[in-house]
Design brief:
Chain lengths: 177, 121
């Protein structure tokens, strides 16, 4: 994965496949704390303790098309490589929380990448899922709540191409420093 | 600077286009593989280019996402289904090729043989 936004896309697809209705994405990007925290919380089917362990291994996957699953291991390694941390907690029937903290000044810290494109790709994937996104940096923050957007849309599906394109620009402007 | 107020205007435009599209049955369904393999190989810009071009040309086409198609070494993979269910599988896609698929296949019904899985194998 070339950047954090790509990892995020991959990780949130796990929440979608877990049947989540609400997904919270929180990014805390702080120069002063020299840390970039990337957190995904969902209300999907969750995992038992053994599965939480297993998904962190590349040799575990739920898919039937092949035998390896690299999403979680790559996300974890990427954060640990910078001297950061990784946390995965889950409870069957309740949901999952996954958090990676990167040390920003470390040479191995990936770039943020195109967060706007990642977010609209997720929204495009399934119009039924609600997202609460919060991106905070030292001087400001940007929030997006799909329920609020859908209220304005008044029945127009949020994943109509025109809406997706507008949202991409809206997010891009919102997170621009 | 865009505000949520602007979204109301976009909403009205989208409503008009949706009514037009209902009369016009969807002609193609385009599916992009978005598992770890697809994403790592560059599926996200491919998907976004498809969505953008379909909106730009206002095509009777649905763009959807799926998980791992099973041929990870050929990702990014884009499948195009016509109304009869015939499938064309494009492999090693990028944004530029995606634009070409829109212009030639989705708009002019021309299969681009050299990008298909058949040509790659």
């Amino acid at each position: 994965m070339p950047d954090i936004a790509m990892h995020l896309l991959d990780i949130v697809f796990n929440s979608i496949r877990a049947g989540a209705h609400l997904i919270r994405i929180t990014i805390l990007d702080s120069e002063s704390k020299d840390a970039l925290t990337c957190r995904v919380e969902d209300d999907g089917c969750g995992m038992d303790e053994a599965t939480v362990e297993a998904v962190q291994s590349p040799f575990y996957t739920t898919r039937t098309t092949r035998d390896v699953g690299l999403g979680v291991p790559l996300f974890k390694e990427g954060a640990l490589q910078t001297g950061g941390s990784f946390k995965l907690t889950s409870k069957p029937g309740t949901g999952t929380l996954i958090e990676a903290v990167y040390v920003k000044s470390n040479i191995d810290c990936p770039a943020m990448g195109d967060l706007a494109e990642t977010l609209v790709t997720l929204i495009q994937a399934d119009a039924q899922i609600e997202y609460e996104v919060n991106y905070t940096w030292d001087e400001g923050s940007f929030g997006l709540n799909t329920r609020e957007i859908k209220e304005i849309l008044d029945g127009v599906p949020i994943n109509e191409p025109e809406i997706i394109l507008w949202l991409k620009d809206y997010i891009r402007e919102g997170i621009k420093r | 600077m865009k505000s949520l107020e602007d979204l109301k205007r976009i909403r009205e435009e989208a409503k008009k286009k949706m009514t037009m599209r209902l009369d016009d049955e969807q002609k193609y369904r385009v599916v992009v593989g978005m598992a770890t393999c697809g994403i790592a190989a560059g599926a996200r810009p491919v998907l976004n280019e498809l969505v953008e071009q379909v909106a730009k040309h206002d095509l009777p086409v649905t763009v959807t996402q799926t998980g791992c198609i099973g041929r990870c070494s050929l990702e990014p993979i884009v499948e195009v289904f016509d109304r009869e269910g015939n499938k064309t599988t494009y492999v090693f896609m990028d944004a530029k090729k995606a634009k070409e698929v829109v212009e030639r296949h989705l708009m002019r019904d021309e299969i681009i043989e050299e990008y298909t899985i058949g040509a790659a194998e």
